[in-house]
Design brief:
This protein is an alpha+beta fold. Helices cover 40% and strands 22% of the residues. It has an 8-stranded mixed beta sheet with strand order 9-8-11-12-18-17-22-15. A 4-stranded mixed beta sheet has the order 2-4-3-5, sandwiched between helices. The longest helix is centred in the N-terminal third of the chain and has 29 residues. The protein is elongated and about 95 Å long.
């Protein structure tokens, strides 16, 4: 997957999360419940960011200078005799696997925490008669248990919500028990555990964004402030409530052993701020309309952030979408089963006999999607379920010249082609388009020099490491169909000294961009030829 995709994710999510933090600071005089809702809204909008990216037109922010024809080493007909220095042409697409491993690692504490909380609840005991009477009076709707494994009160459970109290709660004063249950019941009624789980799942998906973990901690802190405020509204004197909070905190050891799927009443990292807020409560300075306005601003910034596209000019799709948009759209279509794009065909030798066991590979360099198939005894193959995008089709069989094709596929494209593979040492034979869902208009063939003058963006091909090591050099001859928008939509390798050089050449040329060719003032599709020389220095 292209690194620009991940850069766009970082930029867009950073805009949203920084805006959320700024708005939280601006609303520090507002009620804690509002700040908690604002922080949770940031996570909800972050989860919706891919959806916004599909619906909102892109705002392009260029990074780096575009490569122009005047300074490129590769021309439309020939390449400079200077050697091309490059590394491996086709690196392993490891970024999605790193993201998947990171997401699994970040989500693991939730699973571990759920198991730990469940085990603690099973081993917990019911309170004694005196404590049970007080609990039934204060918290009749929630199951309250005593556990020797906890040092401070916990609220846990998604479906079956429980409050776990330390075993020492049997000896608590009535005031301390009331303060603790008031705070923990506020967590239960506000469904803070579910909110924390949802936020953690979003953070796990965006684990590579450090700001998401800052917001994750902010959400937890704001939930504690909100529950303190709820307890004070029940009539507790601030000084008494603060005293009981500190008394409970003294029982906690230096190390917080709270499972990730539970919320403890006290955490040393924010205890001082909570006590200060309890003893010095402030009235909300923002009215309801201003509070709604802040939430609307955050939503608007999320929508705006979803339109930001960054990268080099080559990485931006000049036909109206970024790599991120194309990648997400392709993934959604494929996962939803809506993509009916198929490539079928038949392969024969120069005598017309069907070729079996031909390896057929269809890959999308932008998304990393790849499918393979082999022709049957009748020489036919079929590849289905690909999302829209630009694909490279490769056919190879020992003893025959490999075939490379690059073409665009839309969500409903159905392409059926007949290929003829020439024996090694023979001339390649053109393939025949049997039928497609899109009927092309007649295209005009133009000379290389004419089309070279329209070339605006050029990506230099890389010299494959394997070809350099084997001292393979020579020219790759490509026939290119240029769309009305100036984008190469079909590439066909006419001749090449090796498959590695063919792959390198089509990877580069497919990213070239041209000014539209005009006929009577209207843009038209054209067919031209590109010759790329790979030369090694002595």
């Amino acid at each position: 997957m292209n690194w620009h995709f991940w850069l766009e994710l970082l930029v867009r999510s950073s805009v949203l999360l920084i805006a959320g933090e700024v708005l939280l600071r601006l609303s520090k005089r507002q009620r804690a419940s509002f700040r908690h809702g604002l922080a949770f809204s940031a996570f909800a909008l972050l989860a919706m960011l891919p959806v916004f990216s599909l619906a909102i037109p892109d705002i392009y922010i260029p990074l780096g200078r575009p490569t122009h024809a005047a300074t490129a080493l590769v021309t439309a007909q020939t390449i400079s005799s200077r050697p091309l220095h490059a590394t491996i042409a086709h690196p392993f697409n490891w970024l999605p696997w790193v993201w998947l491993a990171g997401a699994a690692f970040a989500a693991a504490p939730l699973i571990v925490g759920a198991i730990a909380a469940r085990r603690m609840a099973k081993r917990a005991a019911s309170p004694g008669p005196a404590l049970q009477t007080a609990v039934e009076k204060l918290a009749p709707e929630v199951e309250v248990l005593l556990s020797s494994e906890v040092e401070v009160p916990l609220a846990c459970g998604l479906l079956r919500r429980r409050i776990l109290l330390p075993a020492s709660a049997e000896h608590w004063t009535v005031m301390r028990l009331e303060a603790v249950l008031a705070h923990e019941l506020a967590h239960v009624r506000r469904r803070d555990v579910a909110a924390q789980v949802a936020a953690h799942m979003v953070a796990a998906l965006w684990w590579f964004q450090p700001l998401v973990w800052v917001m994750r901690q902010r959400l937890r802190v704001e939930s504690e402030f909100a529950c303190d405020a709820e307890a004070l509204r029940l009539g507790f004197r601030p000084s008494d409530y603060a005293m009981e909070l500190l008394a409970v905190a003294r029982a906690m050891g230096r190390e917080d052993k709270t499972p990730s799927l539970a919320i403890s009443m006290v955490r040393s990292c924010e205890l001082e701020d909570r006590v200060r807020a309890i003893l010095n409560p402030t009235a909300a300075l923002l009215g309801p309309l201003r509070a709604v306005a802040l939430a609307a601003v955050l939503g608007s910034l999320a929508v705006g952030a979803s339109a930001v596209s960054v990268g080099s000019q080559q990485s931006f799709d000049e036909r109206g979408g970024s790599i991120m948009k194309r990648t997400i759209l392709a993934a959604l279509l494929t996962s939803a089963g809506l993509s009916a794009a198929t490539v079928t065909g038949a392969v024969a030798d120069t005598s017309g006999a069907a070729l079996s066991d031909v390896n057929v590979v269809l890959s999308n360099p932008d998304t990393g999607a790849k499918q393979e198939a082999a022709t049957g005894a009748d020489g036919k193959f079929s590849l289905e379920g690909n999302g829209p995008g630009q694909y490279i089709l490769r056919l190879e069989k020992p003893g025959f010249v490999s075939i490379f094709r690059v073409f665009d596929m839309k969500a409903d494209t159905k392409t059926d082609r007949e290929f003829t593979m020439a024996p090694e040492g023979g001339e390649s034979v053109a393939d025949k388009v049997v039928n497609t869902t899109e009927q092309k208009q007649k295209v005009i063939r133009v000379g290389g020099e004419v089309e070279e003058s329209n070339l605006t963006t050029k990506v230099q091909p890389v010299y494959p490491a394997a070809a350099k090591a084997a001292r393979v050099q020579g020219s790759v001859h490509i026939e290119a169909t240029i769309s009305k928008d100036g984008v190469p939509i079909e590439l066909r390798v006419l001749s090449s000294p090796s498959d590695d050089l063919s792959q390198s050449a089509v990877e580069a040329v497919r990213q070239w961009r041209y000014r539209p060719t005009l006929l009577n003032g209207a843009p038209i599709e054209v067919v031209t030829e590109v010759l790329i020389n790979y030369t090694l220095s002595r």
